[in-house]
Amino acid sequence: xSKKIGILTTGGDCxxxxxxxxxxxxxxxxxxxxxxxxxxxxxxxxxNDMLHPDYIELNGAICDETMLTKSGSVLLxxxxxxxxxxxKGRTVEDVKKSIVDGYRKLKLDGVxxxxxxxxxxxLNELTAGCDELNVVFVPKTIDNDVNYTDYAVGFQTSVAxxxxxxxxxxxxxxxxERTMVVEVMGRDAGFIALYAGLASGADVILVPxxxxxxxxxxxxxxxxxxxxxxxxxxxxxxxxxxxxxKHSEREVDGVIKYTHISYKGIGHYxxxxxxxxxxxxxxxxxxxxQRGGETCVSxxxxxxxxxxxxxxxxxxxxxxxxxxxxENKLKIMDISEVVKNVNAALKMDDKYVxxxxxxxxxxxxx
Length: 366
Ligand code: F6P
Description:
This protein is α/β, with parallel strands linked by helices. It folds into two domains: 4-152 and 293-341, 3-Layer(aba) Sandwich (Rossmann fold); 155-292 and 347-358, Phosphofructokinase domain (Rossmann fold, 3-Layer(aba) Sandwich). The chain is built from twelve helices and eleven strands. It has helices spanning 17-30, 41-45, 81-87, 92-105, 117-127, 155-176, 191-199, 214-226, 266-276, 297-315, 335-338, 351-359, and strands spanning 4-9, 34-38, 55-57, 110-115, 135-139, 179-184, 204-206, 232-237, 281-285, 321-326, 329-334. β4 (110-115), α5 (117-127) and β5 (135-139) form a beta-alpha-beta unit. α1 (17-30) runs parallel beside α10 (297-315) and α6 (155-176) packs across α7 (191-199). The longest helix has 22 residues, at 155-176. The relative contact order is 0.17.
């Protein structure tokens, strides 16, 4: 029986989203289903007096092979609609109603939501007690902070982009015999910092999960120079704090749940502290460059796999699930279970934390 399925991308974009969309499109087409691309995340699905579903019918010209490599999302994405609706005085129930109305209006049999941890929590809230929305969730985020999957779509490309940037920074660090602090993204998780730091040969890697000691960082710089290395690379995750450097209150107008704070620049702070001690030091914040970049092979494969399997789930009438990929196997998890413990974080006994320490990289917490 023919089906009409929607797909949307929500939350911060990343490379690999278009691979998911293309995989879903090709599988849907093979099954003679229609795949509707909903634009601007959940906002595009909503229907009320002011908002109407915002969508495009996906086709072979849109979903050609270039989608495998193209960063961003052809469907656009959104991070602020929910918080702005709440700020306008609408309740979660109002928003839920708009979304169900939009889903009905489009006559969908299911919808694939490609999002991060925040989108998953929101989706769980929007679908709680509602059996009308048939959803399948595909995890994507450069932060890689979604539990139960080894990698979320987009993480590995962002690490590759960060590694390339750090390698470029290393050449100037060497020419000027400097210490360079490179601040990377990742929100409350240190995965980008750890993986990019290790893969680019950083000397110090600071992550929000582990406390650090400035004296140990200085000792590492000193050790580098004493051992004949003429520079030092410090990779720091954006949300790292210290006793005298805090980002800000974790609440913005009472709606922090649906939005996030901006970080204040730990890289700049650290570089100043290091410079005060006589070591010449500069900082670079990589920022949103980590969300772009030609999709790496691993993200093309992961995105394609999850896009295809999302359609297969809907085809089987299986809903309320998150797809994950762990230890080389596809896993199908209940969204209601995943949200109980959604956020992944680094632990001291993680494999790559141990490797970093074995290499003599300073990672903090001692
Ligand atoms: O969650 C992905 C992410 O890129 C984080 O690493 C970063 O802190 C945040 O989004 C930036 O969000 P925005 O683009 O809204 O400033």
